[in-house]
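Hello Y.,

Per our agreement to keep a running log of every chain we model this quarter, I'm adding this entry. I've kept the format consistent with earlier entries: sequence first, then predicted structure.
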Amino acid sequence: MMKKANILFIGAGRMAEAMVSGIVKSEHSAFGTVTMANRSNKEKLIQLQRTYGVKSTSDWLRAVQQNDIILLATPPHTHEELLKLLTPQLNGQLVVTVAAGIDPAYLEKRLPQETPVCWIMPNTAAQVGMSMSTYACGTFVKDHHRPYIESLLAAIGPAEELSAEQVHDLTAITGSSPAFIYYVVKALEEAAAAYDISDAQARRLVIQMLKGSVAMLEAGNEPDDLIAQVASPGGSTAEGLRVLETYGVDRMLKQAVEATNSHAKNNGEG
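Predicted structure for the entry above:
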């Protein structure tokens, strides 16, 4: 049986809470003690203790030495100073970050030689256990580290291991694109509500339409085939698609992905 690892979360925001929630709900968690720390919001730590039964600390530097895994759940711009403080306390622990732009090479350059590191890029659906996460492991991650990484990921949803460069590029798809989808959802809800139904009714209609559409894709159908099923030649749906094609909505979405990636690479975060 795999030894349970003690894990320290540095940062107690939404993503950290989502991961902790998933860990404590798991029947076969790979983790023993879960400890939370943050910079200033002590009320949040108390709330997390009460809700999930985790521990908290006001001295995370001292706590590093009592934990096997250190998970950094703070913004990208905090990592430079955070890693400087962390380095003298490390003795082979696995270091994981969920910060945009902070890849394994960045971590390895700033941490003691041969520190095992992992970069996880979840999305906000982690809050409901449905994140599509991508991740990249550093050079010194060994086979015995992987079950813990996989358990962390499973706590928030499915995951795909990629190269660091692919994680950088595909964060626009898995991390940012939900915002694009919500933008479309908002427009469809507004269009529905214009036909004298309530906002709540409009939301139910659009959400169920999305669920059904996703289910058809999950059943293995190709998007082009599904489009053809809905849009018969010369029909009303085809006329709607013609408008989307006229405005180049497909090109707009691709440009939105490219713009997201360009900004992330130039600014070091998502």
